[in-house]
Specification:
- The chain has 501 residues and is mostly helical.
- It contains 20 helices and no strands.
- The longest helix has 42 residues, at 115-156.
- The two termini are 22 Å apart.
């Protein structure tokens, strides 16, 4: 119960004392920003490691299938499963059909039960499926592999919505861009590790099964570590300091609106408001075109390089890993740039998001167009352009990738689930369109159309993000609370009015 004394010196003294306490708390919280490696940083490191093992498990079949289908040339001591190209495509694509099905549901589950629970569940099941892969292949052949990869896709569909939900609770707004980028570079790092080590593992005493045992085993180790050290929110952490909790809560409180009386996990999802929100639709457009361009490059460029330029980069693990390596390494200077913009009071957060996203999409757009005019004699230049086209795309982590949390901390996982579902559909559609356009895989002009289409998507998607994108919390982030939650503010307002009279 809150008592208000009208016009008394006692009330003034209480207010002054409260102000002094608040100022002291703010000073203590500010001190927490310079405390070095804090618990929120550990949580981001854990997410980085989780995405590393997650993406290693995602791409391991893509690199292991070479040894599985042609074991005699890699390691003849292990079974071989000859697959036609059509069957191989079914096996490899089965993961993504599961992946697109759990995105939206994962956001709601993460908000209800906590991001830690959903992330742990996803990685745990996916790790077990990886450990069972060699056994399933020997028992059921390619049909069992399809089913197993489909289940893995279902599990990995929870990754990004869960991570976004965790990040929304742990990171102050001014740290989201840089720290989220650090955490999400785990996806590139895991891909690099798998591409570089898969050949060594396949030719080792463990053979191609060791690729799945290694990635699945690392996943189990991460699950144990995250179960002990991870937490969905700062209040759930047993090791966090009171100062850091205070810092995070004070920063996040600035984003709350007057309707934020009801706990976020009990708020009904404002589906209509979300699906008609211009800032969110612009974000989704940027996400979809980024997925289109990224996966067009990574799935089709090896074929273009081989058939048009006569350079086989698939057979070279280093060349295959170069785009991912560039994506990983370039994230660090982009984070430094973002921190510089965050410190500048003259630059808004919205400008920072749009500027980063423009770098991440318009520069690759120009490089894609240039790539379409590279001749066969300039194959080295083509590799350089490809590497930088994929690498510079990492700036989008500071753009649309974190913008879900800017728009709605309470429903960040749900927003990521929606946009990532549509982006995944775009990823699946990109190779299909390439198959329609490129009827002669040796025709450079047909491939040029593919590059122009991807460049056009970049132009439109980022243009919409520039025009309609926002970085402030949207009104629908806090749906109106129930009447009983509104009663206290109303009574205090009435008391205040009475005192004024």
């Amino acid at each position: 119960m809150k008592f208000i004394c009208c016009g008394s010196k006692g009330a003034m003294a209480v207010n002054d004392n409260a102000a002094n306490i608040d100022s002291k708390k703010e000073a203590e919280a500010e001190a927490g920003t310079n405390s070095g490696f804090a618990m929120r940083h550990l949580q981001m490191l854990l997410i980085f490691c989780g995405l590393t093992v997650g993406f290693a498990m995602r791409v391991n079949l893509s690199v292991a299938v070479v040894a599985m289908t042609n074991a005699t040339t890699v390691n003849p001591d292990f079974p071989e499963y000859p697959l036609s190209e059509k069957t191989k495509s079914w096996v490899l694509s089965s993961f993504f059909w599961g992946y697109v099905m759990t995105q939206v549901l994962a956001g709601a589950l993460a908000r209800r039960f906590g991001g830690k629970v959903t992330l742990l569940t996803g990685v745990s099941v996916c790790s077990i499926m990886n450990l069972l892969t060699p056994l399933c292949a020997s028992i059921g052949g390619w049909s069992w592999l399809c089913g197993l990869r489909f289940i893995e896709g279902l599990c990995q569909g929870v990754f990004y919505p869960s991570c976004h939900t965790i990040i929304a609770h742990w990171l102050p707004p001014r740290e989201r861009g840089s720290m989220t980028t650090y955490a999400y570079t785990g996806s590139q790092f895991g891909t690099i590790l798998m591409l570089v080590t898969s050949g060594l593992l396949a030719s080792s005493a463990g053979g191609w099964p060791s690729i799945f045992y290694a990635s699945g085993g690392c996943g189990i180790v991460w699950v144990v570590v995250y179960y002990i050290l991870g937490a969905s929110t700062p209040k759930d952490s047993k090791s966090i300091t009171a100062e850091e909790v205070q810092l995070i809560e004070m920063e996040l409180a600035k984003e709350r609106t007057a309707n934020a009386e009801l706990p976020s996990h009990r708020q009904a999802t404002p589906w209509l408001s979300i699906l008609t929100s211009a800032p969110f639709l612009a974000l989704t457009a940027a996400h979809c075109v980024s997925a289109w361009g990224y996966w067009t490059l990574l799935t089709q460029i090896p074929s273009y390089m081989n058939n048009v330029l006569g350079k086989d980069i698939k057979s070279n693990a280093l060349l295959s890993a170069l785009p991912y390596l560039a994506n990983f390494l370039l994230s660090f200077p982009f984070v430094w740039l973002a921190k510089c913009m965050e410190k500048s009071e003259s630059l808004s957060l919205a400008f920072s998001r749009k500027f980063s996203n423009t770098i991440g999409q318009y520069i690759p757009m120009c490089l894609l167009i240039a790539l379409g005019y590279v001749t066969k004699e300039q194959d080295t230049l083509a590799v350089v352009l490809l590497t930088f086209t994929v690498g510079i795309n990492t700036a989008c982590h500071l753009g649309f990738q974190v913008n879900h949390i800017d728009l709605s901390p309470n429903f960040a996982g749900t927003l990521m689930g929606i946009s990532n579902t549509l982006a995944s559909v775009m990823s699946l559609s990109a190779p299909l369109l390439v198959g329609v356009i490129v009827t002669d895989k040796h025709d450079a002009e047909q491939w040029r159309i593919v590059f122009f289409v991807a460049a056009g998507f970049y132009l439109v998607g980022n243009g919409l993000f520039i025009l309609f994108g926002r970085a402030d919390v949207q009104p629908w982030n806090d749906p109106p609370a129930k009447s009983d939650h509104k009663s206290i503010p109303q009574l205090e307002s009435q008391k205040s009015d009475h005192c004024d009279k």
